[in-house]
Amino acid sequence: MDLELSPDQEMFRDTTRRFLENEAPLSVVRSLEEDQAGFSRSYWSKGAGLGWTSMLVPEEFGGAGDYGQGLLDLVLVAEEMGRLTSPGPLVPTNVVAAPLVAPGSDGQRQDVLPGIVSGDLVATWAIAEPHATWGPEGVNLTAEADGDGFVLNGRKTQVEAGAQADLVLVTARSGAGLTQFLVPSGTSGVEVVPHRSLDLTRRFAELRFDGARLPASAVVGVVGGAADEVERQTQVALVLQCAEAAGAAARVFDFTLEYAADRYSFGRPLASYQALKHRFADMKLWLEASHAIADGAAEGVHERSPKAAELARVAKAYVGDRTVELVQDCVQMHGGIGVTWEHDIHLYLRRVSVDKNTYGTPAEHREALATLIGL
Q1: Are 207 and 164 in contact (CB under 8 A)?
Q2: Domain 123-220, what fold?
Q3: What pTM does this model have?
Q4: Looking at the domain that runs over 7-118, which CATH code has it been given?
Q5: Euclidean distance between CA atoms 148 and 214, whole angstroms
Q6: What is the DSSP letter of 5?
Q7: pLDDT tens for residues 209-260?
Q8: Pairing mode of beta strands 149-160, 142-146
Q9: 89: which DSSP letter?
Q10: In the CATH hierarchy, which top-level class contains the domain 227-372?
C-alpha cells in the first residue's frame, strides 16, 4: 500500500507481517493443500485478535470504532496476506460484517457481530450464481414470502469458505427487489457442495436452496431494499481483493529481480540482458500502476466518494489482468525451475488467478464500468 501511513498503521502492518511469517509461512500454506478447511480456527482467532475482523465494526460491538481507519487499515492486512498467499476468509468475513452494522437488526448486531469480531464465527457472502453474470443483475435465487418468513429456492456458486462458514449472507431476489438473508450453517433445505480451487488454501462451495425456510428475523435490512448494500459490499470486496493481488505481485517481482541478478548465463547476470531489462521495466510499470489504482480505490471506497463504484471497478479491471500477467512473466524469467512444484512462484500465480476470477472477472467489471459512465 502506497498511501502515507501513520505510525499506528506502520506498527499494525509490521505486526501483521511478523504474525503471518511466524504462523503461516509458505511451508504452512503448502501443508494446507489437503486440509478440508484450508485454514485453522485457532489461526483465524489469533488473526481476529490482531484486528482482522474488527476494522469495519463500531467499538460498541467489539470493533475498532473511531480508533482505526476502517477499510484503509484492513487493506494493509489484505496486502500482507498477498505477500505470503496466506490462508483465511478475510474478504468474505469482512464483507458480511459491514451490512450487519448499518441495516442489520439489533439482534443481528448483538448476537452475531461479536462472534465475527472475535473470530469464533466465520461468515461468507453468497451472490454469484451458475451461468449468470456476476453482480445484482445475475441474482435469480428467489425469496418468496411464506407466512411470517420466507422460502428460498435457487443456487449460489463460488461461495468462499461456503462449507466452513457458520453464517452465509445470501443475496436473493424477492418480489420487492434485492433482499439479503443471514443463513446459519445446517439450515434445512440448503445443500452444501464443496469445491476445490486452484489456490492451495482457498475453499469454495456451491449452495443449493430447495425450499429453505427462514424466519423474518433472518432478513438483513429492508425487504427489497438491499441494492445499496450489495453495491457497498461489492466495493469492499474488490478493494481488499485488489490489495491482496498487488501484494502478491510485489513479492513475486522482488524475488524474481533478485533471482535475475544472481543467476548467470554466458558469463553475465540475467538482469544485464537488454531484452530482459525491457520486460522488467514493463512489469515495474504494471506493479506501480496496480498499487496506485488499488490505493485510489481503497481511499475512494473508505471515504464513500461519489466515484467509489467506478474506482473499485477500474481497480479490478486493471489489477485483475495485470497481476496475473506480471506473475506469468516472472515464471518465464525463472526458466525451468519456475514451472516446478518445488518453487514457490506457482503459489502466487494460483492466488492472483483465483482473485482475478472471483467477485466478477475484469471483463465483467469493464462492462459494469461502461454502464456506470453511460457508454
Answers
A1: no
A2: Butyryl-CoA Dehydrogenase, subunit A; domain 2 (2.40.110)
A3: 0.95
A4: 1.10.540.10
A5: 9
A6: P
A7: 999 999 999 999 999 999 999 999 999 999 999 999 999 999 999 999 999 9
A8: antiparallel
A9: -
A10: mainly alpha
